[in-house]
Design goal:
The chain has one domain: Porin (Beta Barrel). The chain is 10% helix and 52% strand. The protein contains two helices and ten strands, in the order αβββββαβββββ. Strands 1, 2, 3, 4, 5, 6, 7, 8, 9 and 10 form a ten-stranded antiparallel β-sheet that branches. InterPro entries: Beta-barrel_OMP_2. This is PorT family protein.
């Protein structure tokens, strides 16, 4: 209970600090924060992953039960000018999805839990507006490569043995937006970003007539990130 009270008090003070940024004549915090060529920070956040399936034939679709996962990582930012920054944001992303395959009567055959731990390497361009007092909106986008540590790509077993396989390397593009808030001691940035895989991630079953994968032409991840950055 004591920890909960402390967290609530902290959230109240943070809310008051952010609200103060929108005053007509705010005290300018961290006035030279964006001047250095290089800036560093870290991020924490949440994610929700989904799959987009392309099918060979019109048939019953695979169902995806989504859940929330978490993100954590580092930030390296290089300033180009007042409005443009290049960012590298290596991070660890964890998520779990449950797939329901049609046409089965036994749950052991119909359900596959897909646990994914991605090491993500995005290279992004951040497009800023001019700073307005103690806040600054921006758009961000770019490309990323993800290493899926839970892919099972090298497994000799497939769905007939209860193993759902995905490719280790995933190539994505990312688009999002956020707001930089300049607080008294650090810059705090909430942001929302969509992540869309460009490459097919499915490793087909060994049997070309597999009831699990034979009708899937491609399977690509798409996800939503909500990140909180501290610089």
């Amino acid at each position: 209970m004591r920890k909960l009270v402390l967290i609530l008090i902290g959230m109240v003070f943070l809310n008051q600090s952010i609200t103060a940024q929108f005053n007509e004549d705010p005290v300018i915090n961290l006035e030279n924060e964006d001047e250095p060529l290089l800036n560093w920070g870290y991020f924490l956040g949440f994610n929700q992953y989904d799959f987009k399936f392309d099918y060979k034939n019109d048939a019953r679709h695979v169902l995806v039960d989504k859940s929330f996962g978490f993100n954590v990582g580092l930030i390296g930012e290089m300033r180009i000018n007042e409005f443009l920054d290049v960012r590298f944001e290596p991070g660890l992303l964890y998520n779990s999805r449950t797939l329901g395959f049609p046409g089965f009567t036994e749950e052991n055959d119909a359900i596959r839990e897909v646990k994914s731990t991605y090491i993500n390497f995005p290279l992004l361009l951040k497009v800023n507006t001019r700073r307005i007092g103690n806040w600054k909106p921006f758009l961000i986008g770019g490309a990323s490569t993800s290493l899926n540590l839970g892919s099972n790509e090298d497994s000799l077993d497939d769905n007939s043995g209860g193993t759902f396989r995905m490719k280790k390397m995933v190539y994505n593009y990312e688009l999002g937006f956020g707001i930089d808030f300049y607080l008294e001691y650090f810059k705090f940035t909430p942001s929302i970003r969509g992540v869309f895989a460009l490459s097919d991630e499915l490793v087909p079953d060994n049997d070309p007539n597999s009831p699990w994968t034979s009708n899937i032409d491609a399977m690509r991840t798409r996800g939503l990130f909500i990140n909180f950055t501290f610089e």
